[in-house]
């Protein structure tokens, strides 16, 4: 009888040896998908307008971004709409060289597919956007995307 | 000397280290896809270029002033009206379309509009011109653009649903775009999308803003 008597045991501990593997798997996933924020904003983070007819921008590497909004440091830069290229506040005339520099990074056959994404604050004025558009037209960078969020358009004019 | 050979390294804290890294990447990761209203700018016209003469009835004129108020064809309108006005204008089909690839233009067979003499002749002749002020807010400008685009999308959806034949019959334009984003190399699909786009080509012009 005593041969079959069960010894009383507590619950066996869960084997956690595979835990690091699981965590590493997740870690690699996030390491691969992560993109570090490349540019630091010198302007106040633009509040993008809402729109319903949005298109996703594909091929992130072919997108160059122009930021428009009010400067964070208004004492230094003034209070009007400012244009940020890379990580500096620039004037409209610098856009051409900025786009050329972006185009340098790519093969010539990719250049027609390059898109300029304008991330502008809802409160910016159309005049500034028009100036940017004219610069882009002059250097034949014709694909433009006005960056928006998808949402209620009624909020744009408030 | 009692020396233990091959003592195992304690791997118990490995998970902690991995967690720490994991949390770091979780926090820094951004997965949002950039999206927006995409437009193709017109090319720079050559010097002493004379713009073609266009009949006034083929242009829908939208003016925005610096107080974000809107005139359409010289009448004050609200944002909510823009879409319907644009649809009525584009879909009017009151005349004969423009010549495409040497084939003379025909009347618009798929238009459901009023066929009014005073509005546009054909969707491929209908131009929407948006003139804003330099002081107009960007939000207002985008709102108007968005409403115009949604008018085009609605017309294209309708055309695709009613007039496509064969494999893609009954599909809307949105459905077709969705299919094509999953199947980029499909030539038939591209041709169909092109057909729908050409039925209602997007002709939105941005006039130079007033000062």
Walk me through what this model shows:
The complex is a heterodimer of chains A (158) and B (211). Chain A is of the alpha/beta class. Chain A has a domain at 50-157: Nucleotidyltransferase, domain 5 (2-Layer Sandwich), CATH 3.30.420. Helix content of chain A is 27%, strand content 21%. Chain A has helices spanning 19-33, 74-77, 95-104, 126-138, and strands at residues 50-51, 55-56, 63-70, 81-85, 88-90, 115-120, 143-147, 149-150. In chain A, the strands form 2 sheets. Chain A has a 5-stranded mixed sheet. A two-stranded parallel ribbon of chain A has the order 1-8. The longest helix of chain A is centred in the first third of the chain and has 15 residues, at 19-33. Chain A is elongated, with a radius of gyration of 26 Å. Chain B has 211 residues and is of the alpha/beta class. Chain B has one domain (56-210). Helices cover 36% and strands 15% of the residues of chain B. Chain B has 5 helices and 6 strands; from the N terminus they run αββββαβαααβ. In chain B, a hairpin with a 2-residue loop joins strand 3 (70-72) and strand 4. In chain B, helix 2 crosses helix 3 (138-163) and helix 4 (173-182) packs antiparallel against helix 5. The longest helix of chain B has 26 residues, at 138-163. The radius of gyration of chain B is 27 Å and the shape is elongated. The model of chain B has no long low-confidence stretch (mean pLDDT 83). Chains A and B meet through helix 1, strand 2, strand 3, strand 6 and helix 4 of A and helix 1, strand 1, helix 3 and strand 6 of B.
């Amino acid at each position: 009888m005593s041969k079959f008597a069960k010894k009383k045991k507590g619950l066996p501990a869960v084997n956690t040896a595979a835990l690091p593997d699981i965590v590493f798997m997740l870690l690699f996933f996030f390491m691969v998908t992560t993109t570090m924020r490349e540019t630091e904003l010198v302007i106040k983070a633009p509040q993008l307008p809402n729109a319903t007819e949005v298109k996703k921008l594909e091929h992130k590497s072919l997108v160059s971004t122009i930021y428009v909004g009010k400067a964070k440091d208004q004492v230094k830069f003034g209070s009007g709409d400012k244009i940020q290229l890379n990580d500096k506040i620039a004037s409209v005339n610098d856009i051409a060289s900025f786009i050329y520099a972006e185009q340098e990074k790519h093969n010539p056959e990719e250049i027609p597919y390059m898109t300029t994404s304008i991330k502008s604050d809802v409160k910016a004025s159309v005049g500034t956007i028009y100036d940017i558009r004219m610069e882009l037209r002059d250097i034949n960078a014709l694909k433009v995307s006005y960056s928006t969020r998808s949402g209620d358009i009624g909020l744009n004019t408030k | 000397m009692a020396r233990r050979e091959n003592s195992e390294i304690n791997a118990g804290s490995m998970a902690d280290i991995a967690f720490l890294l994991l949390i770091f990447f979780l926090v820094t990761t951004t997965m949002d896809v950039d999206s927006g209203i995409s437009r193709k700018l017109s090319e720079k016209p050559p010097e002493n270029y004379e713009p073609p003469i266009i009949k006034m009835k083929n242009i829908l004129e939208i003016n925005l002033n610096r107080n974000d108020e809107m005139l359409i064809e010289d009448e004050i309108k609200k944002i909510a009206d823009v879409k319907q006005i644009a649809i009525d204008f584009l879909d009017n089909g009151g005349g004969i379309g423009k010549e495409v690839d040497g084939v003379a233009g025909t009347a618009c067979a798929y238009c459901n509009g009023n066929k009014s003499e005073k509005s546009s002749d054909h969707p491929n002749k209908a131009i929407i011109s948006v003139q804003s002020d330099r002081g107009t807010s960007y939000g207002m400008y985008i709102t108007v653009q968005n409403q115009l685009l949604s008018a085009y999308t609605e017309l294209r959806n309708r055309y695709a649903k009613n007039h496509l034949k064969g494999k893609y019959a009954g599909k809307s334009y949105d459905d077709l775009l969705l299919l094509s984003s999953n199947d980029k190399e499909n030539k038939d699909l591209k041709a169909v999308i092109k057909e729908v786009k050409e039925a209602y080509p997007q002709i939105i012009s941005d006039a130079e803003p007033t000062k």
